[in-house]
Amino acid sequence: MSFRLSAREFRDWCLPAVIVAVVYYLAALLGLKLQIPGTNSSPVWPPSGIGFAAVMLWGYRVWPGIALGAFLANLHTLPPTTAGLATSVGICVGNTLEHVIGVWLLRGMIAAKNPFERAGDVFRFAGVAAVCCAIASTNGTANLWLWLWNQTPPEGVKLSNVWLTWWLGDTAGILILAPVIHSWVRSEWRGWWRSQGLEAVAVLSGLVTFAYVLFGGFFSLAAPVTFLILPGLLWIAFRFGQRESSTAAALVSGIAIWQTIHETGPFALRDPMTQLLLLNESLLPLQVFVCTVAVTAVTLAAAVAERNRSEDGLRALNLTLEQRVAERTAELARSNQELDDFAYIASHDLKEPLRGIANYSNFVIEDYGDKLGEDGQSKLQTVRQLAQKMDTLISSLLHYSRLGRTELAIQDTDLQAVLTDVLESLQVRLRELNVEVRVPQPLPTLRCDRVRVGEVFRNLITNAMKYNDKPRKWIEIGWRCETIRPAGPAPLSPPGREPGDTTEPATVTLSGASRAAAEQACGIFFVQDNGIGIAPEHREAIFRIFKRLHGRDKFGGGTGAGLTIVKKIVERHGGRIWLESTVGEGATFSFTLQPE
Amino acid sequence: MSLGNHCTILLVEDSPEDYEATVRALRRAGLRNPLFRCEDGRQALDFLFQRGAFSDPAVAPRPAIILLDLNMPGTDGHEVLRQVKADEHLKSIPVIVLTTSDDERDIQACYQKGANSFVTKPVTFDGLVQAIQRLTDFWIEIVVYPKVSDET
Fold this sequence. Notes:
The complex is a heterodimer.
Chain A: H1 7-33, H2 46-58, H3 63-77, H4 82-109, H5 119-149, H6 159-185, H7 194-215, H8 230-239, H9 242-261, H10 279-405, E1 410-414, H11 415-425, H12 427-432, E2 435-438, E3 445-449, H13 450-466, E4 473-481, H14 512-522, E5 523-529, H15 562-572, E6 577-582, E7 586-591
Helix pairs in contact in A: 1-2, 1-3, 2-4, 2-6, 3-4, 4-5, 5-6, 5-10, 6-9, 6-10, 7-8, 7-9, 8-9, 8-10, 9-10, 10-15, 11-13, 13-15
Chain B: E1 9-12, H1 16-28, E2 35-38, H2 41-48, E3 65-68, H3 77-86, E4 95-99, H4 104-113, E5 117-120, H5 125-142
Parallel strand pairs in B: 1-2, 1-3, 3-4, 4-5
């Protein structure tokens, strides 16, 4: 085992202890200077604040420094006799324990490293200071009593009073100085911006002047008036941080103590007869005052810091939220771009070979048809048809994917005109299939995407005429204005009318602008047919892309994308689509074009 | 004057299958015009500006019509179109964009650059034949062109 100190050990252990010893000793000399004249009592014992702050900042390892400083300080008050030295040792053990036990208690009660950041923690700190100072004062008083036991006790010394002033002096020392030292060494100082620096100088100098006026003995003031200093401290606590606040409190306390021990100010009460300072009457109110000032200032500053932190936290959260939204939006834009690119690639690069297959099948039939025979020709025809079908499927898929991404061109749209266009373009097939089209009342004007909604009607009407095996086919296209039912039933199977149900839903008759608005709000459109109908078990499946219920060549074929595209368009408008059907009798597709 | 059977057609098309189909469609439409093919944009620009391997006007005559594909490796149809329409001498040649694309952005961009028409290739061969027939009827038989001085 080596007893040589490494540089690191010296730096970490010896140096802090030595510094603490020196500072503690100097503070004790100051404390002795602060004694009320004619007594051995100081209203505040600065070394207790120094010792407490030292253990808080550097840990328990500084205890030898405290012990040494306290021992040296006691040499000034106690004679260098054996009994005096023994008493000094006894007192310095108590002082050292005060700080070690105090910080230990504090660490047990407060999770945060800095006890001056939350109002609750400041109260705990004050409580701990009171408790640990009771240890030192009790120990000190006991030692004094032991020493006095061997001496002639000085006249008028009451041990209970010694205990009280000792305890209050130590507590005041911790309450005033520990926050100041801690905040100057540790706390993160926000700094002042220009106007705040001016404000700080103005408020602090105003406060100091005011304190000097209060305690300077210029006026004959009662002790309670001294609490007029609090507004100034509140100002500093609310406008600045813990460092400024605790420093201001220490300055005010210092002025109060200095003036009182120089026998001026509201706390310096004299005996009317002897004109001597009354110890108890002066000391106790002063100690209560400085403790109150210190705890108030530090607590308020902590509470304000707490509030600022939560505000900062919220602001930071908002900022990160905005940033995250922006990032996500950029991501979405990128992925949309990628999808766009994919769609483009798919439409060209995937289709090109298909076109080649179809064309070359054709060329083979053209050039070598005679050698192939009928069977070979028909097989090549099938190859060509399949390639073309694949081409159509890719087109549908692209169309569907584009629907999800491109913006709707929302405008006032005369739906009757849209429907007329659609019916005109389907005219030939409608006549071929002998379909009667019924439009009982003209469709309204609505804000929607004209082209897309035309697509909805075209798809639904095409389906209605295709999936019909009756000799007399009919399709009815109409709309009704119905108070939108509350969202409840599943979108695809609401409680709708049965086919043949004669009760009409409530119709609202309005005129002019209010009518347009009402139509916008309540329009339910439907395309009804007397076709083959759709069995209940298929009513959801029909909206799946490429889902077909019938063989490829039955009912005129198709890709099976139509209803998927219809649903997508309706949903892009914020509406919904649903279906009522009786197998063999017909189907009704109803949809809305606005959010409910 | 309008063009006739002797005028030159330049076909810019990277896919041999599509080239074959277009040639067949042209022949089916009854055209016997001299046909030149470029396989990509770079070659097309060399041909049109008569440089590199095409510096001899006999090898690379000024075409009367350009049928231009858009999607090509390297220099694409957009760039060819841009350079042709930016050139004083070449910009009067009608450029017919003949492509598989029906993308709105392509259509917009091509007309912005001065394409004379934008045609999406019909899916079926019969459709292609019909389209080519009508295109050539219009651009070769009907449309009247300014006289071109031979010196370039």
